[in-house]
Amino acid sequence: MRTPVTIIGAGLGGLTLARVLHVHDIPVTVYEAESSPSARAQGGLLDIHDHNGQLALKAAGLTDEFHAVVLEGRQALRILDRDGTVVLDQADDGTGGRPEVQRGDLRQVLLDSLPAGTVRWGHKVSGVRALGEGRHEVTFAGGGTVVTGLLVGADGAWSRVRPLLSTAAPEYIGKSVVETYLFDAGTRHPDAARAVGDGMLIVPSPGREIFAHREKNDTLHAYVGLAEPRDWFAAIDFSDTATATARIAREFDGWAPELTALITGTDTAPVLRPLYALPSGLRWDRVPGVTLLGDAAHLSAPNGEGANLAMLDGAELGQALAAYPGDVETALTEYERAMFARDAEAHADDMPRFDSPDNTARGLADWFAEKEG
Question: What is the pLDDT of residue 353?
Answer without folding.
Answer: 75
